Amino acid sequence: MAPSSRTASLRPDLLIGPIAGPRRPAMRALPAFALGALAPLAIIAAGALFPPGPWYDALLKPAFTPPDALFGPVWTALYVANAVSLGLLLRAPRSVARTNALGAMALQLGLNASWTPVFFGAQSVGGGLLVVVALLAAILACVAWLRRVNGWAALLMLPYLAWVAFAALLNLSIWMLNR
Fold first, then answer.
1. 34: helix, strand or coil
2. For residue 35, which phi and psi values (nearest 5 degrees)?
3. Structural domain total, the chain
4. Apex CA 176: angle with CA 105 and CA 51, to 5°?
5. pTM, full prediction
6. Domain range holding 127?
């Protein structure tokens, strides 16, 4: 007996989520999430080329500077959120909003990747400040575009936005203390 239209509409792979749109089988999601993980992994690898070192240790820092041991776990969690957000974006149907969100995502990831070589590599606190302010603006734009495409992808970026705002304040404070 052929399934009725009512039975066919109850298939799990055709369910409609409130934010994410049509649900697809998990195996089809893997390439999008694997691709989404590549950009943050590349940023982590590039950042490892420019460790803080003695130059950074000698800088005056504000009292609210977190311990060095906190940065690794926090950035790891934020990069995972970035990867999942990008994976959700890549799975979204093609649209102008998706294209703009992908552009904003690429811009903010590029700025994120450039901060470490500028701040630690070039030992430029002022240059790092310029990059982190631009990064903050790019993340705001990214969240705005993501919200139009996938609400969960946008929500995943909010802790990152908050941390980069804190990082901008920290960078500004270091610049003011050391000029």
1. helix
2. -65, -40
3. 1
4. 55
5. 0.76
6. 30-56+74-178
